[in-house]
Records
---
Amino acid sequence: MNFDKELDARGLNCPLPILRCKKSLGELGAGQVLKIVATDPGAIKDFEAFAKQTGNELLSSAQAGGEFTFFMKKK
């Protein structure tokens, strides 16, 4: 998937991945895509909830080898 910016949140625990995501999305324009890579198992629910609360679109989420990859589109 194409993305405009990547956020490495590996090794960070809640709420840091969400806080860093919010900051990174603030640097993007509407419709741009942020790729997030995290290792916190709680990140799946956190990013789903964050997308619903903020109106940003969670395009996809995947897990591989203990890492979670998310693509979020800024509203």
Note: The helical segments are 16-26, 43-54.
---
Amino acid sequence: MSVIGREELAAMIPHKGTMCLLDQVVRWDQCSIECTSLSHRRTENPLRHDGRIAAVHAIEYGAQAMAVHGALLASEQGRCLRPGYIAALRNIEIACSTIDDIDRPLQVKAWQLMADGGNLVYQFEVKAGRELVASGRVTVVEMEENE
């Protein structure tokens, strides 16, 4: 499977411009996805507040990886992914206070644990090299077509 670049993956999620935090998909299959990003180093990152990016925002990196994974799976089935929202966060671990000072690319991984209709549960992990930045479990609920 070839690497998916920023432009192609940005077309899969509703986050546009600098709010698309991921740079590429390096690997994916039916159950998981692995992405990389250097957007935490960019001064135009919209998650910056007073020049810093809080590590809690690593959850958004994980959520975007989940959205791309869902879009890739939907595309394989000949359909478009419906928009969704985060319904719950569980077992969140944040291992640092900020991410803008991390000089290495972020590796963002997500594993689909459950898919039941429009309800999805993913485990995610964000690392810089071998160091954990954040991890946790996210429940996503797809919106109904009329929402």
Note: The mean pLDDT is 93.
---
Amino acid sequence: MLDVMGQGGLLMWVIAGASVLAVVVFLERLFHFHRAQIDAADFLEGIFNVLRRRNVVEAVSICEETPGPVAHIARAAILQGTGDHHEIQQTIESAGLAEIPRLERNLPLLALIAQLTPLLGLLGTILGLIEALMQAQQRAPLVQAGDVAGGLWQALLTTAAGLAVAIPAFAGYHFLVHRLEQILLDMERASVDVLRFLTKPAVPVEVAES
């Protein structure tokens, strides 16, 4: 393995470092999304049952103990309490917007790795071919296969390595984006349900005292 890395040149180590970073980012986001995506319908039904008993403190406590943006949105809305429909809606929207950067964190980095590693491989290919041509020119007219083999190895290895990193990184990025879209959809549905529940005239909910 070290021989292959050595034949690929410096860019092989750069591509290898990018591959490690891509794996770390993918696993971190996958774990984060796994914790963030809860059964929103069951969670909200439990919260609504608690609020129907006028137990705001317990509802807020459940939201604080539950991970994920849906719970955070519900907590913000409950603390806002009943009242003006527009104010509660703004509170929910602000809470949702605050969650989006946390969900999208490091995803652009994974996309960047997927885009850059093939270019790094292409750069390694060009540098390898330049090295091969320089060796051929220096040893002309008696050029041996071994004289240009080093440059050709670098050209082929960096291209292969760049694609080998970019393809799974690109696939992983789109898989995570799909998971993110599902979470955003849950947030949107939960926001509508919470707003509808809190603005019903028959269900007064007072803000919990701190």
Note: Confidence is low (pLDDT under 50) at residues 202-210.
